[in-house]
Every structure is written in C-alpha cells, then in structure tokens.
Predict the 3D structure of the following.
Amino acid sequence: MTKTAPAYKRILLKLSGEALAANQGFGVDTKRIHEIAGEISEVQKLGVQVAIVVGGGNFFRGVAQQAKDMDRVSADHMGMLATVINALALQDALEKQSTYTRVMSAIEMNQVAEPFIRRRAIRHLEKNRVVIFAGGTGNPYFSTDTAASLRAMEIKADAIFKATKVDGIYDADPMKVDGARKFNHITYMDVLKLGLKVMDSTAISLCKDNNLPIVVFSLNQHGNIKRVVMGEKIGSVVSAEK
C-alpha cells in the first residue's frame, strides 16, 4: 500500500550535468530539463523541502579528457562555472512550473546568483523555495558529489537522492557486464572497499562520518523522484547498516 505522507521532509537531490543534456550529450536539452523540473515541482508540492546540486559535465569537467593539458585548478574552476549555467537553466525550468527557486553559488557572482549562506539557504527551504547550489564547494579538487554531501549536511537533509542513468548500485557496470549484481542495500564501508563508482570516496566518507543515507535510483523512469520520496523501495540505499 502506498504511503500518503512523504517519507522524507528535506532532501538533497544530486543531478548530473549529463542528465540535463539527455541524448544530445552536450548542453541542455530543453524538453528533458522541463520534464525533470516537472518531477521536482510535483515533489515540492507534497510539502517536501528540496535542495539540488547539479553537475557541469554536459559543458566541462575538470578531470575529463578535454582538460588533460590544463592546469587542474583552472580546469576545476571552469567546471564550477559550468554548474552555474546548469543551475540557471534548471531555475528557469522550475519557475515555468510556478515553483519559487533560488540559486546559491559557492563562487560569488551577485548579478546571477545569491552567495551561499547556510542560514539563508535553510530559510529559503522553510519558505518552500527550491534551492539550487551551484559552483561546487567553491574549491578545486572537490567534485560535485562532495559538494552534494557537504551541502546536505549543512542544511540537515534527511538523505541524498542521487539520480543516475542506472536503477541502483551494481558490482559492475550493468550496461557493459551481463549478470552484474544489484545491491538493494549496501554499507558505506562496502562501497569504499569494493571501489564502487557511486560517488567519489571523499563524498562517501563524509556521508559515513555523519550517517547520511544515500538513495541511488534511475532518473530515466518518470515519477521515480516522487516514488523514492514516498518511501517506495526502488534503487539502492547506502547507509551504516545493511
């Protein structure tokens, strides 16, 4: 039986930049971003407070092949700016759904986004605004996965929702390996020991130290964000105990 009340009060949704590009592979697919915004808006209307961290891989990634001859710090700063582009695109799509949204950037750029101030972010959430965190952590050498873990803890989120291309965590890439085994539930330590590419090790360690659950699920099936919020057992859960 489906629960009538959401299982989570405040969530941090981690989206990859590639999710916004959809099949284009680069840039923002306007149809796809409006579909995602519609799902987020639906969840927010249930009374769930939603914060989002979005990656920048659809434009530029500091550790990608395209940046191999660049200084790592410069490349990472370019990647952070790419996340701001995505955050603004997502804000526009959400506001077309009549969902009040704020973009907060770790890199100050006052003409386009608010600076990240923890208490202000929490206040926005309490006023039922969707908050999009851009600019990563503001520091090079840290991924947007780590930014998601950090922001989730700062706003005291109940869980991180990591929306991906696959329907959970597997012991091998299910798109390449037939018979890859799916984990419905796995501990932080097992993720680190097995070297699973759920999030990078810094992000997993942060979640482990602060006992913050991670729910990994597919964004490709419409309505999955709402299903997870309502407590349906889809995807994979990473927590301290099996």
Observations:
- The chain has a mean pLDDT of 94.
- The two ends are 24 Å apart (CA to CA).
- The chain has eight helices and eleven strands.
